[in-house]
Amino acid sequence: MSQLTPEVLWAQRSSSVDPEKNFIYLTISVPDVPKESLKLDLKPTTLIFSGYSNTLKREYSLNLEFYAEIDPEASQVHHTARNVELKLRKKELKEEYWPRLLKEAKKVQFLKTDFDKWVDEDEQNEAPEDDFSQFGGAGMGGMPGMGGGDFGGIDFSKLGGAGGLPGGLGDEEEEEDEEDDDDDMPALEGEEDSKAAAKPSA
């Protein structure tokens, strides 16, 4: 069976004084890989991953060699039904970002920037602390892309104007808005009519 390389998203933070804020976010996109078929070998300079997706009937494998060393002991792994998320602690405390994730400078197709988590180097001190506290705990469910069923259900029913129950108040407000518009419109139409009427006689 051929092995597929999963898509990998990454972002980073850096700090020369606080180890907690000196890390790499790594998300391996592998849907429905149960823990028993998942293998993850994290070392200071490499990450080796393999897993079998039951629904897609595909074997995934990944072998990364990092740009610099990480601290496996201080790193965290969070496994969900949709992916495997890692928070890899950079070993060396440095203010500068890593210039890239991998040791080799060549571009690889499967590796992409995680724009949901990315913060520019000069703006990272203003980044919300929630980014750090949510990782690895029960709060993970609230993060973007993590099983947002509730988010989708509520918002889309309102956006879709499904009338009925969710949009009750919204419909009344809309009617009022329409009435307001109607009050304004006749005056404008009247002006246009008078102008139009004035033209032929001129």
From TrEMBL:
SUPFAM superfamilies with a match to the protein in the record: HSP20-like chaperones
Protein's name according to its UniProt entry: HSP20-like chaperone
GO CC terms in record: cytosol; nucleus
Composition-biased stretches (Gly residues): 136-152, 160-169
Any single GO BP term: protein folding
InterPro entries the record matches: CS_dom, HSP20-like_chaperone, p23-like
Region ranges (Disordered): 119-202
GO MF term list: Hsp90 protein binding; protein-folding chaperone binding
Similarity comment: Belongs to the p23/wos2 family.
One family name in Pfam for this protein: CS
Transmembrane feature ranges: none
Domain CS: 3-102
Top-level lineage group: Eukaryota
Biased composition (Acidic residues): 119-132, 170-192
